[in-house]
């Protein structure tokens, strides 16, 4: 089956759902207060972010009655405070970097002048252009009842908000996550930034200190450096710690070359304010402690799921620190009516995973298929320049599990004619292979996030490394690198002793 729910969130308007299925009746109420609206629905979705919207759109277009709750902005984190503003900011920053770098093509330019207010206008315009796809109007057009209120459980099958009580056959918790604020001494006393505030700061920071060298920290570090700020990243472990180590190092070095200071192995332990300045005291794993002084502080040390005031106990929905406790069917283990999708499910936290979760829900709940949340390899891309794209197992994970039974054929972009023509040869494609089976891939370099999709299609559909050699790849493209890494897997076989012997024997045939 195709990815119905996943497609529907951003698809054009479809047919309207059967609104008659939503039974509405006034309930008894206290004198002087508005009556509580009573409804029944096939599906209640709490949270109109990537996960909730995708699931709601799928269900509504299948003719089911859907009530969609959102207490904040339609579109959730990805549209308003996550993917979209961060990628819009990175694009503005890339434009500035390319102007500075144009000399390598023999083009003379003057240094770019950054107008932060206009950069923010670009960020806001990007959000505004995409917003109609996630809007209340669009979802009402699809047949959903959209309620812009905080929702909570009033029982295992009942959700209430200030105006409405809904009894539902199924309930989706898609309430997302917010920045985790670590218990560092003094942090609460300083005006720190998170992804909710960084995109609207009034002025370009003089010195932005970023706590955390994960995807958020590294993307913002490069964006703000390229836009003219001094940036220091304080990372207690390794920056881009979930990526292939060799490939993460290539990106880290590229950011350092552009002027980002990245301190790895330094944990922030105390924060102080001194006038306008924010001071970060760090504890090193070895070596000297650093005390940094900056004008702004961004906290990007991971995420925390959002279940505020939801009375999960009333719904008999168990959760832990990671999220709602679900199996790989995404169904609450303690209340089978309830499903958790997206960041709230306590698994990988990406918009494409939120969309995939909605697809798993739709397939399981409505088409009675057995699709599992972990049935496909998960891609993760950090959109720095160079991009770092990871799929399935890293080389280190595969070696830990299978020892020397794996191989990691690779192709460096310095051998790519396209990369040479673009004067951007940094990076590599690496495949992780065991007995011809693809276990994973990592790509670092320009457009790595696009290139890894080839391997993603192959892995998701049971193709092996051989299949990645058996197609005609247009020249000159960076995607040829995937084919050439796959070819490298067979280099010894194709050009080895026995192949040469075979060919010489075959030459005797007239
Ligand atoms: C800076 C940043 C950059 C990112 N970049 C990328 C990227 O490039 N690619 C990528 O794949 N992912 C990226 N992500 C991650 C991605 O944004 C999230 O994984 C995704 O938004 C999760 O979607 P969701 O639907 O689970 O939650 P959310 O988008 O957080 O939506 C949850 C919604 O639920 C609402 N809600 C919560 N509680 C209630 C309640 N009780 N009643 C009513 N409504 C409620 C909230 O207001 C919110 O709108 C990024 C994240 C950040 C922070
Ligand atoms: N391009 C993308 O797809 C993208 C971009 C941004 C965010 N996201 C999603 O959002 C999630 C959260 O991103 P994130 O970067 O906030 O979290 P993260 O968990 O990926 O990285 C946080 C980093 O902070 C470090 N850290 C924790 N406490 C620290 C301390 N006291 N001092 C110094 N370092 C400390 C950790 O070691 C870790 O490396 C990601 O995992 C991803 O799922 C995705």
From TrEMBL:
Signal peptide boundaries: none
Name of the protein described by the UniProt record: Dihydrolipoamide dehydrogenase
Keywords: Disulfide bond, FAD, Flavoprotein, NAD, NADP, Nucleotide-binding, Oxidoreductase, Redox-active center
GO molecular-function term, one example from the UniProt record: NAD(P)H dehydrogenase (quinone) activity
Cystine residue pairs: 78-83
Transmembrane segments: none
Lineage: Bacteria, Pseudomonadati, Pseudomonadota, Alphaproteobacteria, Hyphomonadales
Pfam families in UniProt: Pyr_redox_2, Pyr_redox_dim
Stretch list, region Disordered: 1-32
Domain Pyridine nucleotide-disulphide oxidoreductase dimerisation: 378-485
Source organism (scientific name): Hyphomonas atlantica
Family of this protein: Belongs to the class-I pyridine nucleotide-disulfide oxidoreductase family.
UniProt keyword Coiled coil, yes or no: no
Residue stretches making up the FAD/NAD(P)-binding domain: 42-357
């Amino acid at each position: 089956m195709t990815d119905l729910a996943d497609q529907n969130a951003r698809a054009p308007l479809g047919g309207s759902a059967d609104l008659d299925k939503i039974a509405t009746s006034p309930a008894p109420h206290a004198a002087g207060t508005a009556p509580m609206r009573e409804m029944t629905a096939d599906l209640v979705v709490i949270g109109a972010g990537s996960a909730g919207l995708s699931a709601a759109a799928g269900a509504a277009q299948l003719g089911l009655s859907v009530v969609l709750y959102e207490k904040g902005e339609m579109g959730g984190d990805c549209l308003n405070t996550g993917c979209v503003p961060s990628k819009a900011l990175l694009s503005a920053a890339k434009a500035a970097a390319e102007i500075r770098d144009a000399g390598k093509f023999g083009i003379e330019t003057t240094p770019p002048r950054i107008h932060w207010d206009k950069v923010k206008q670009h960020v806001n315009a990007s959000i505004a252009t995409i917003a109609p796809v996630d809007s209340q109007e669009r979802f009402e057009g699809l047949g959903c009842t959209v309620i812009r209120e905080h929702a909570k459980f009033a029982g295992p099958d009942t959700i209430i908000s200030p105006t409405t009580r809904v009894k539902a056959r199924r309930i989706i918790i898609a309430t997302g996550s917010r920045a985790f604020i670590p218990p560092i001494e003094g942090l609460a006393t300083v005006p720190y930034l998170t992804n909710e505030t960084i995109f609207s700061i009034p002025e370009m920071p003089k010195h932005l200190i970023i706590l955390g060298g994960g995807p958020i920290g590294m993307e913002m570090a490069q964006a703000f450096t390229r836009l003219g700020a001094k940036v220091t990243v304080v990372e207690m472990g390794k920056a881009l710690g979930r990526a292939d180590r060799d490939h993460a190092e290539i990106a880290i070095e590229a950011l350092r070359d552009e002027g980002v200071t990245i301190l790895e192995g330094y944990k922030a332990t105390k924060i102080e304010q001194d006038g306008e300045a924010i001071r970060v005291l760090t504890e090193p794993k070895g070596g000297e402690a650093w005390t940094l002084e900056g004008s702004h502080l961004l906290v990007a040390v991971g995420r925390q799921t959002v279940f505020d005031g939801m009375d999960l106990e009333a719904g008999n929905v168990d959760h832990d620190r990671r999220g709602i406790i679900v199996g790989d069917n995404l169904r609450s283990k303690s209340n089978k009516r309830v499903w958790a999708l997206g960041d709230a499910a306590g698994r990988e936290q990406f918009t494409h995973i939120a969309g995939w979760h909605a697809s798993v829900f739709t397939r399981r709940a409505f088409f009675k298929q057995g699709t599992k949340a972990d049935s496909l390899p998960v891609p993760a891309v950090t959109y720095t320049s160079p991009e770092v794209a990871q799929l399935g197992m890293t080389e280190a994970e595969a070696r830990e599990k299978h020892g020397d039974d794996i191989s990691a054929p690779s192709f460096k972009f310095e051998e790519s004619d396209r990369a040479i023509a673009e004067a951007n040869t940094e990076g590599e494609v690496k495949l992780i292979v065991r007995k011809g089976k693809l276990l994973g891939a990592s790509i670092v370099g320009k457009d790595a996030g696009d290139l890894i999709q080839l391997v993603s299609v192959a892995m998701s559909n049971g193709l092996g490394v051989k299949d990645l050699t058996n197609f005609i790849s247009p020249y000159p493209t960076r995607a040829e690198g995937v084919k050439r890494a796959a070819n490298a897997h067979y280099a010894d076989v194709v050009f080895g002793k026995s192949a040469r012997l075979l060919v010489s024997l075959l030459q005797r045939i007239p």
